[in-house]
């Protein structure tokens, strides 16, 4: 009887840091598919590396995946600039434990990933390594192959840019979950009054169909307009699917409460929420581009700590 082949030390070392590598690549790229490709390419490079030159596997692998992610981000920039309608990150399923850490949750939220999209590839990689994973400037300089001074400057620019567009406040995770549950119930019941209580006065709905499915090509803004949009969901045919055929599930997406909509044979959309300091829903991100729903459809829950 053939014994199962044991993983070698190289493979074990790579597996030890695989979650870290995906976590870095996903935050830099905003795409689970591209992040998985970057991690796979990192494995190929790691497999071919001269071990005598690798003193610190974690630093070495982080350098590989950071540069692969920046390179991939540069190559996809044109596609994103010519995208039909708003470009939103690719949603991923996370566990409720991810939501226990506010910093971890915020760093993978749709709202922050949208802001990171406006940074240069270098600024984005530096921000992720410094602010999310607490790498030192020296470690980041080695990872992104830049001088210490260049990294500090990129980190300063990125931090100022993010803080200006993404004010930080202490999030009450239990309240967010409660608001999301009430929103979910109100949408299912077409209860526009409750929806208006749960939404911020200047709430904004962003929809991403990528030109593949019919969605709003501009943000939908305002309390009453957004409330009516969702109150009508339970009575409206969506992507050819009758309301009675559609199932919706409240789950954890990108570190926070979200909704997955399913038809008889496929995932058709996700919703994620951002909240204002009063705990009301201030932004809703709706991803319906089928090319961006594979990570949710396959059911994998990602650890992103």
From TrEMBL:
UniProt domain RNA polymerase sigma factor 70 region 4 type: residue ranges: 110-161
Q: Which InterPro entries match?
A: ECF_Sigma-70_Domain, NTF2-like_dom_sf, RNA_pol_sigma-70_dom, RNA_pol_sigma-70_ECF, RNA_pol_sigma70_r2, RNA_pol_sigma70_r4_t2, RNA_pol_sigma_r2, RNA_pol_sigma_r3/r4-like
Q: Which UniProt keywords apply?
A: Sigma factor, Transcription, Transcription regulation
The region annotated as signal peptide is: none
Show where the RNA polymerase sigma-70 region domain sits: 14-77
Q: Write down the CDD domains for this protein, in alphabetical order.
A: Sigma70_r4
Judging by the UniProt lineage, the source's domain of life is Bacteria
Annotated family: Belongs to the sigma-70 factor family. ECF subfamily.
Q: Please give the subunit comment from the record.
A: Interacts transiently with the RNA polymerase catalytic core formed by RpoA, RpoB, RpoC and RpoZ (2 alpha, 1 beta, 1 beta' and 1 omega subunit) to form the RNA polymerase holoenzyme that can initiate transcription.
Q: Which NCBIfam families match?
A: PRK09636.1, sigma70-ECF, SigX4
- Name it: RNA polymerase sigma-70 factor
């Amino acid at each position: 009887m053939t014994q199962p082949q044991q993983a070698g030390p190289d493979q074990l070392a790579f597996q030890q840091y695989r979650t870290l590598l995906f976590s870095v690549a996903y935050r830099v790229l905003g795409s689970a598919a591209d992040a998985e490709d970057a991690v796979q390419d990192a494995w190929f490079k790691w497999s071919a590396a001269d071990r005598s030159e690798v003193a610190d596997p974690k630093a070495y692998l982080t350098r590989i995946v950071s540069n692969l992610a920046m390179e991939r981000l540069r190559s996809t920039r044109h596609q994103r600039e010519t995208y039909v309608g708003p470009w939103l990150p690719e949603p991923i399923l996370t566990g409720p434990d991810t939501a226990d850490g506010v910093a971890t949750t915020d760093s993978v939220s749709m709202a922050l990933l949208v802001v990171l999209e406006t940074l240069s590839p270098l600024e984005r990689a530096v921000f992720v390594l410094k602010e999310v994973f607490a790498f030192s400037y020296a470690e980041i300089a080695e990872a992104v192959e830049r001088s210490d001074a260049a990294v500090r400057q990129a980190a300063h620019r990125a931090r100022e840019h993010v803080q200006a567009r993404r004010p930080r406040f202490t999030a009450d995770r239990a309240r967010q979950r409660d608001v999301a549950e009430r929103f979910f119930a109100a949408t299912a019941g077409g209860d526009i009054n409750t929806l208006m209580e749960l939404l911020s006065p200047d709430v904004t709905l962003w929809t991403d169909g990528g030109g593949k499915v019919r969605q709003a090509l501009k943000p939908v803004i305002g309390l009453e307009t957004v409330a009516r949009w969702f109150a009508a969901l339970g009575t409206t045919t969506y992507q050819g699917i009758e309301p009675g055929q559609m199932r919706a599930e409240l789950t954890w997406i990108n570190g926070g409460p979200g909704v997955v909509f399913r038809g008889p044979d496929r995932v058709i959309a996700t919703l994620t929420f951002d909240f204002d300091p009063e705990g009301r829903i201030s932004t809703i991100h709706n991803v319906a581009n089928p090319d961006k729903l594979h990570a949710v459809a396959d059911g994998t829950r990602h650890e992103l700590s």
